[in-house]
């Protein structure tokens, strides 16, 4: 499951949740309910990830840098 929120232009928050199960057996049952029971009893691995992305506005940074250079030249 992945959720993405865009707060403003170029600012993202991403939350991801993963669930993995592991069952090591060579025996295969023909019963669907028996297989479901084995899956629910097997070991689980849950992962939660949080990621933040920020993309700066290059043109605005360039403008601010040029404006700062003009102020120092005086």
Automatic annotation (TrEMBL):
Pfam families membership: DUF5916
Domain spans labelled DUF5916: 1-63
Domain of life assignment: Bacteria
InterPro entries: DUF5916
UniProt-recorded name of the protein: DUF5916 domain-containing protein
The species this protein was found in: Arundinibacter roseus
């Amino acid at each position: 499951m992945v959720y993405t929120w865009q707060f403003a232009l170029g600012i993202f928050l991403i939350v991801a949740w993963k669930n993995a199960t592991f069952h090591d057996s060579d025996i295969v049952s023909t019963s669907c309910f028996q297989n479901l029971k084995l899956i629910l009893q097997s070991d689980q691995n849950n992962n939660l990830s949080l990621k933040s992305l920020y993309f700066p506005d290059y043109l605005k940074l360039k403008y601010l840098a040029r404006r700062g250079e003009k102020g120092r030249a005086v």
